[in-house]
Structures are given as structure tokens and as C-alpha cells.
Amino acid sequence: MKLHTVAELLSSDITLQDIEIKGWVRTFRANRFIALNDGSTINNIQCVVDFENTDEVTLKRITTGAAIHIKGELVESQGKGQSVEIQVKTIDILGDSHPDEYPIQPKKHSFEFLRENAHLRTRTSTFSAVMRLRSSLSFAIHKYFNENGFYYMHTPIITGSDAEGAGEMFRVSALDAKNPPLTEDGKVNYKEDFFGKETNLTVSGQLEAETYAMSLGKVYTFGPTFRAENSNTSRHLAEFWMIEPEVAFMDLAGNMDLAEDFMKSVLSYVLEHNMDDLKFLENRLLDEEKTKPQAERSEMSLIEKLKFVVDNNFKRVSYTEAIDILRNSKPNKKKKFNYIIEEWGADLQSEHERYLVEKHFKCPVILFDYPANIKAFYMRLNEDGKTVRAMDILFPGIGEIVGGSQREERLDVLKEKMKALDIEEEELWWYLDLRKYGTAVHSGFGLGFERLVMFATGMGNIRDVIPYPRTPQNAEF
Amino acid sequence: MKLHTVAELLSSDITLQDIEIKGWVRTFRANRFIALNDGSTINNIQCVVDFENTDEVTLKRITTGAAIHIKGELVESQGKGQSVEIQVKTIDILGDSHPDEYPIQPKKHSFEFLRENAHLRTRTSTFSAVMRLRSSLSFAIHKYFNENGFYYMHTPIITGSDAEGAGEMFRVSALDAKNPPLTEDGKVNYKEDFFGKETNLTVSGQLEAETYAMSLGKVYTFGPTFRAENSNTSRHLAEFWMIEPEVAFMDLAGNMDLAEDFMKSVLSYVLEHNMDDLKFLENRLLDEEKTKPQAERSEMSLIEKLKFVVDNNFKRVSYTEAIDILRNSKPNKKKKFNYIIEEWGADLQSEHERYLVEKHFKCPVILFDYPANIKAFYMRLNEDGKTVRAMDILFPGIGEIVGGSQREERLDVLKEKMKALDIEEEELWWYLDLRKYGTAVHSGFGLGFERLVMFATGMGNIRDVIPYPRTPQNAEF
User: A271, A307 in Cβ contact below 8 A?
Assistant: First the structure.
């Protein structure tokens, strides 16, 4: 007999004899109604137990969290709230769950408590929905790139170059931690380490992705990246996943087109495939927002917000225009911003980004052509000599979700910029080679995957959208 | 004007006016015929230059590796070897490639030389084919699991638990490397490290995947894993990618079914989608094998081998049967094996695995029910008390490609096995919780992705199937 899933049975429009299902008890009420879940959908299937003909011992073992095996019939439901239900013929307890000990009780748990029990939290509706959406978004990303002629590339996690400067790095080593070998002048002798040099965890696969774009044309990465920054916030992780497409012969305008089309496509995918989970999360968010003052509540519901992004053009605004808007804005004039915008060249803080997106434009915004000196060395210098072809996409409620640029393809200009920042040419000899041999315009961007999952699920803390978050003082599980 | 790709144009069955294409020159002969490639296919498109009306300077700059922009017409080819070609109207040099300096000359380079130039090696036909196949296999994997109701899960890369014992680990730290803080009893004080404890790079996501299988039902990981083992061989990497599905309510027989169906499905996918690349690699392998003595050559060509796996059942053989076969085999009796099989309980070496696959059964083999004491602690003990429900899949030319098991779901048995191996319960409290609350039969396996890419491409060295290999003394790029 084939094992059915809850999702299959709930979508059946015919009654079925001899069905068989395994799953975990969510609730058991009136000694009769089991709400059973197996992870295949957010919805439970109701299993009706013939308690008069079931032994007492078994009935007592039907507790929240227990794994059970049910054989029976799928019939039209007599009760409200479901169209089908299972008339149980036999029930086997596969694994007990002691009701006094099981941490996941059928009640509301705080997210903090569930983080401490992250190995069990996908047994709740909220976290199972979040993680199904995370999976669905991942697939949508691979599907989009595959359909658009991109090749998936695994860039290295352990890296010997620290030239990128995207942030503090974690050291990877196999040397004795207490007494590392030293060189004659008293430094740690990394020549004796596993790789024969000092190595770190990557902060980005972009530079390596460029090498593949300049031969395979269109590539993307989707892998873990790391920051050893002591940021204990609801928006930062020490280990997170990034998507980084890179395309030869594409300029900044093409990059903006790609990023917008890509974001719309992956969000469309979950609107099409994950509506049950989205509806649940939408209601969860509504409940959560009820506890907040009116002014802090979202104007749109979760699903409305996703549809809004899919259906509307992203507003494209140059950094220079944005500075004008911010300088003349009420919070700037009334000194409500923590960082007052005074002149061109200022780095935008998240308060400014959120003002632009949430108050001024009220839609996703692509800012482009930033001042060169607040952006990375590899970005293409504009003809004005002071701005670079950078772009950031800002989303409501999230802030920066995508950062990208056209890359500096001119060897002499790139060398000059590296020199100004004390980046040694020997460190990036291979990156410079791309400009020596068959160089061309090329562009790409990076998307922090967890930011996307937060946006699509309405979850407010980044620790709740990744299975096992790594943050300062926390590497449990 | 839309930019075309080489792949699009080569598959066009109509002539096209006003086409536009960008790519890199592979060769330029007779001052007239450019073989142009843009990564979209292994095939080049022939671009015919009207050299009488093209200036000398431009003609000289059409060198191997140069990036160029061509406008022209797609016409039926007059020459042999291609059905269409481009009549060039205008040609722009986007990026030069100095013919005396460019490392990738239009000739055969050794793989060793290309490893040293890994940033340029995808500009060769062999490596572009390998990396397109790698990408295609990745997509096939995601597609298979998505279509079969699995959720993709990102297990942590940085891990605080070292209980798994799958091999030597790399330490991840942000402490001062030379003078780490010490505890009172003179050990490194990891409480002061970023995560407040000693952390390493993961060797497997299995244990965490089990936590998700026991709530979401069917999950899989596809991420990087690490071994700090000083193995300088053609089959080992310090950083490699693994796929690890894990399924609740599935026993070892189901696990074998899943693994076989999965392997066949992903190989079918590349047979369907990557035939041009496969044909090229098949010929490359034939050329390579011509240099070998007859006895060492494969009996099947690359594509035949892939089709053979797709079309034939994997032979399922218990460890006990395998030992009998090996004990009575010629190489054992004639003491040709380095490790002579004498009795039940011996660990199989790769020479034995290859004998079973390549000489005895001549097809993929699934070995199962291994002696408990040569396998990991988490494998389900059989009723005989001496074997565990483990399985390994052996492939011709590769050896072990998949390793999996049914997991020990009984709390008391698991605790006993951990005790025997000195694994502290506190280290894996969360893993034990899965057996306390709603435990059930579950199983999964691990597939080393690079082994699969080697098999599908016919490449003999694992360093040639990953973009930037990490091996002892090497973390370049």
C-alpha cells in the first residue's frame, strides 16, 4: 500500500478506500479528532478515531508530537473546517511524545523560546511555512537562472585572498590553536598551515564569478558567505546565503533590468506555488501588528506587498536625485534623522533608504550612480570621474536587498583604484588578467537570500528565516 | 538591437538580417574566418570577415582571446563543418588579447597548466563543457527533489559540534592567531571567540537534516562540506559539495529505491540537455585513452556508460554476499589485492569495490547491511545485533559515489552506541530529542557532488570538475 501525504489527501476530490498515512499529531481533542501533519502542507488532516473500539492505552499515547501510522478511509467530512477527513481503521503509535516533556505544546511560543529549540521549531505552523517558502524561493532562483541561460557556479568558501574588503573575516586554520608555529620574525607561520597560506571564509563569490562570466557569459552563485562582525541585530547573521549573478557584455542599465525581472519572477513563483503558507503567514503578521500602534502597522498585507512588487515598476533614481529629495525632506529639515543629510557625497543610512522607499516613493527603488569613494574598488567609474555605476535596490520594510554594479573593465583605471586603496596587484593577479585578455563591459549584483526570505514571509528577525542561525555567541546545533 | 547568443544563432534554421553578437575569438585563420564563442554552447560560430574592406589595424587585433562585437547577417554557410555562418558587416574590438602574452593558446594545454590558470581555463572547450555539465547536474538535482516533494534546506557551515567523526575538521576562529586568550588551566579560551565556543567547518549536514525530516517529511541539503585531511590524491578535495536527502518514514529499501531513481534521473537530464558537451567530452576521453594500454581502456564510451546506468537496475548485494564473492575471487586467491579478504568484518577497500563493480557485476552495485563496527554510530542496528542498515552505491570507474543508511530511531540503542564511542550526550542533546519526541523510522544518503561530475564528464581528476579546488598547499584564487 502506497503511503499518502496530507497534501495529496486534502486535495483529493474523491473518497478513497484503504488509505495509509504517517505523520505527527498536532492536537487530539475529545478523544476522537486527531489533527495530523506530515510537513507536506501547512494544513492538517482530521483523522476521526473510533474511540469506542480503540484500546485505552493507545488513546492515551495519541499526544501532541507523537508519530503515528494510520490506515483508514478518506471520506467527506461531516464537520466544518475541512472538506475531507480520514475515518481511522487502525492506528499505530510509532514514536511517543510525553505530554509533560515535549517542548512544543499546542499553544503560542515566543520566537526566542523557539530559537532555543530550533531543532523542533519546524514542528510549528509558522516555521514550517517559513522553511517551505525558503525552499520554494531557492528553487525559483535556480529555475529563473536556468531558464535564462545562466550557469550555476560554486565559488570557493575557503579563500586565500582578503582583498575584497567587504567586512571582517573568519580565519580557517588547521594549525595548533594554542601554539601555532612562528616565523623567524615572530609571526604566525601560515606556510605550515593546511593551505600553505593564511585563509579565511569568503565574504563574496563575485570576483571568482567574474572569471566565469568572462568565458561562459552568464553565471550565478548561490552559496554561503560570512562576516565576523559583532552585529547583534535582527538583520545580521555571521553566516548567510547570497545569490550573485554576473553577466558579460551587460551594462548597469541591463543589470537593473535583470535584477528587477529576477525579483519579480521569484516572488511570482511563490505567489503561484505557496499560497497556503503565505495566507497563514499573512494572518500571523496581522495578529502581530495588532499589538503595535496604528502608525507602525503596514499599509499593505503580506500578499498585497508581494503582488505590489510583482505588478509595479521599480522606481529608478540617481544618488544625486535621492540626495536632493532627502535634503529637502521633512525629517531632514526637522532634524529627525539621526544622520542629517547636508551635502552630496554622504553615505545613505538605513533611515534614509527607508524614507525614500516607504514615505517618498512608496514602491521599490533602485538607486544608482553613487559617489565613487563610498563604494568598492571594482565598480565602473563614470565619465564624470566622481560617480561609479553602482546600484542598490531598496525594498519596503527591508531596506537594501540587492547591491550591484557594472565592473571596472579598464585595466589602467582598475589598477589606479587598487593602488589608492593599497590593494596589492599580486593579491588579485588573476582578477587583473580578466582586464588584460579580452576584457569587456560586465555587471552583476548580490542578493542577500535571508533578506528576500524575510520580505516574502513577513518575518521580522533574520534568525527566524534560516534553519540554524550563526550570530555572536551562538553556534548551537 | 537585441544581442544574440551563439547557441541561438547556430540553432536557427532561417537566415537573419541585422544580427548582433559579442564573444571571444577562439581562432582567426586566413585573415578571414573567426571562430567565435560566448559560452552559450561548446560550438563556435564562424564569422566571415570581409578582409579587403576591413582596416589592417582591426584585423591585427582579432587574436585568440580578444573580446569582439560583430554586426552582420546570418547566412547559410558555403563551407563545410557548419550549416550557418555570419557575414560580418562591422567589427569592434572590445578587449584585446596580446597573442604573445595570452596563456590560453589555440593548442593543447596540460591540465596541470590549466589548473594554475583556473581563472582562464573555462575559455577552453574541455573546461567550459565540464562546468556547463556541472551546472546542469546541479539544476537536475534541485528539479528532481522539487518534483518529488522535497524541501531544500541550508544546514549550517560553521558548526559547534564535532561529534560526527566523519573526519578531520578545519577550525573557524576570530581570535588572535598568535596570542589567543587562555583559560586558567592554560587552554585556548574559546569562550572569548566569536561564537563563545570552539567552532569548525561542517563535514556533513546530515544530523541537522534529520531534524527537518522529522517535521517537514522530505528534505535535502546541497552545500559545501570540508575535510582537513592531507590527502593529495586525484579523488580528494578539502572543500567539496554534498547532496544529502533525508526522509521520514522511509526504511533502507526505500532509501535504495530513492538513490537509484535519483541517480538515473539526474543522468537522464544531462543526456537530454547537454549532448553537445557530452559528445565533446566523450571524444576527449577516447583521445586520452588511446595513450593507454588496451587493458586500461574503458569498455564503454562516456555516453554509453551514462546510458548504461540509466537503463539498468543497480545490483543489490549484501555485505555478507560481497565478502563471499571477494573471498573466492581470483585476485584474492592469487594475493593480487593489497588487502586480502580473509573474514567477515573486513572493511572494503577501493580495490575491492572496483573489483565488484568492474569485474564481477559489471554494473552499478548497492552494497548493504554492513558490520556495525565499521560504520557510523547513527546507523540502524539490525535484528542480528551485528550489522547496520547502511548502503553504499559503487559506480564503475569511480567507486563509492553514494553512502547512506537508515538511522537508529530508538533512543536507548542510540545512547548505547554513543556511549561506546565516547560521544557525549550533551553534545547531541538536540539529536537525541528527535528520538524522544515522535521518533520514527527515517533514512537518507550523501552524494559527493564532484564524484558525480567526474562520472558524468569522464574527467579523471577531481580538481578539474570544481571551479577553484582547495587541496593541501593550495587555496589560490
Answer: yes
pLDDT tens digits along A122-154: 999 999 999 999 999 999 999 999 999 999 999
The pairing of beta strand A84-95 with beta strand A45-48? parallel
As a whole number of angstroms, the distance between CA A221 and CA A447 comes to 10
**Rounded distance, CA B171 to CA B194, Å?**
12
Q: A353 CA to chain B: closest CA distance, Å?
A: 30
* pLDDT tens digits along B375-430: 999 999 999 999 999 999 999 888 899 999 999 999 999 999 999 999 999 999 99
Closest Cα in chain B to A471? B195
Contact B437 A476 (CB under 8 A): no
A residues 341..360 contacting B (CB < 8 A): none
Asked if A277 has any chain B CB less than 8 Å from its own CB, the reply is no
Question: Within an 8 Å CB–CB cutoff, is residue A413 touching chain B?
Answer: no
Per residue in A100-112, pLDDT tens?
999 999 889 999 9
Q: According to DSSP H, which parts of A203-338 are helical? A: 206-216, 252-273, 275-290, 302-311, 319-327, 330-333
Cell of B13: 534554421
Mutation target to probe the B interface, by most B beta carbons within 10 A, among A4, A114, A135, A237 is: A135
What confidence score (pLDDT) does residue A164 get?
Answer: 62
Asked if residue A351 lies in contact with residue A339, where contact means CB atoms within 8 angstroms, the answer is yes
B438 touches chain A (CB under 8 A): yes
Cβ of B437 within 8 Å of Cβ of A119? The answer is no
Nearest-angstrom CA–CA distance, B286 and B459: 12
Closest CA in chain A for residue B67: A438
Helices (H), A151-232: 206-216
| Distance of alpha carbon A476 from alpha carbon B203, whole angstroms | 16
* DSSP H helical ranges for B176-274: 206-216, 252-273
| A86 SS3 class | strand
Is residue B472 a contact partner of residue A194, using CB atoms and an 8 Å limit? yes
